[in-house]
């Protein structure tokens, strides 16, 4: 009896040894745990940053309506912006922002699409050697430098040509046009390159000229991509702060024409946020402007997704 | 009008468009360099700014720009490396991953002024650190993280599957494979991305106005103890960068030669950014040759 017990024990301890070895993690597994830990931590940091950014700006932005009890319609459609006296109609800035964004996109799109067609269809060689660096350099120029050139060249030019002070929506449009041009161009190039080769070959084989092929086949099948490119450009224009702020004149009044000083959401934010006291109505009102910016950026993001999905469906059919 | 005439006309129009675009760039560069470079001198590059009018040299601002850049990179490169490895290696193709990807996309599409305001709210208002180098560096990190992460993920994913399989078949862990085999192969792409993003960070101003501040207190360049308030390395002092300086001189400055000053500062900024772009390309090519042993 004793002996069997002993034997059993021995057996048990042996199996314990094996199970210990088999159930314990090897060095490689432990390394993998560490690696997973590190990379999960890093991605966690990014998620935390995004979440807290959305949370903080939203909670600050709605304070105007929850704490100061300003009505949302008054804020969105009021035209009188004098936060010190309690008037916070943000329509002038909203109109300003949309005006410069659309104007810049309308001017830049033909240039961007033309350049992209040149780079992909007319002269791919020159496109790669000459235009690719041009686009990259235009992207690389910092926005304050665009603002400075706008101030030193575009504003005096406008003053000379159309009169007035030179500050205004049209000057901002000019500056933004150059700033969004490389964004739209490089994304349009990508979408033109993604058009299947046989589309083009089939069209040319039918005897179509290059322009017929480009305009009726290539541009048409690349439309979702080009639209995405334009929206990205608009998102950049909508969020651009300093370059616009330097040339638009920063007058928080409804823009009557394109050549009188106006202001955008971003320009009002950059000029105002340092001069107001945290927690007061003028400060909260500015955070509400920031909230509009945030929401618009999310909207542009969603729009890009919808277009991408639609475009995919079209190709599949 | 027949098809051939239309084709010819369209070609002419497109050529004109391209000429305009190239012309714009040439004009921009020529304008900045021609109007700015004559005013760039050694005393301008090293001199101090008059705090009231904004006139004078840009020595402190230039130092601040580089210091902020280094700090930003020290914070953002490790985080985006980890995040990039996560996305390239560990992330499964499910709703959680696509949520993470959209979060990164949202962060990258946020206007830089919003990122700057968030930094202002968090560090200056909530934590009461004040306008400081460290607030600026973290705000720039927020702005830099999404692009760098995407770049690193793309570089890692571009490495061929067989390299991964080779590592795993040798009994290495996924992590070891990634760090020891995949990362070195992907290094040229990653380095190019890092240097390009450095150029972007160097020229950024909107995110810094309310985080790193708009003043450049004269620092004592003989004092390299980061804890001293007068030391240039002290991370808790306000630090106006070159890009912010250009903005400040143009909008609030009282210097009577503001145009000259900002032209010169813009020229310096542009040259720095061009050097970053050129450096990215050269360094990427050099590393690619070293790593792949191809001539």
TrEMBL record, chain B:
Residue intervals of the ABC transmembrane type-1 domain: 62-280
Chief location bin: membrane
Its membrane topology: Multi-pass membrane protein
InterPro entries for this protein: MetI-like, MetI-like_sf, Phosphate_PstA
Membrane-spanning residues: 12-34, 66-87, 99-123, 129-148, 179-198, 258-280
Pfam families to which the protein is assigned, alphabetical: BPD_transp_1
Keywords for this protein: Cell membrane, Membrane, Transmembrane, Transmembrane helix, Transport
Subcellular compartments: Cell membrane
Family membership noted in the UniProt record: Belongs to the binding-protein-dependent transport system permease family. CysTW subfamily.
Protein name: Phosphate transport system permease protein PstA
Organism, scientific name: Levilactobacillus lanxiensis
Organism phylogeny: Bacteria, Bacillati, Bacillota, Bacilli, Lactobacillales
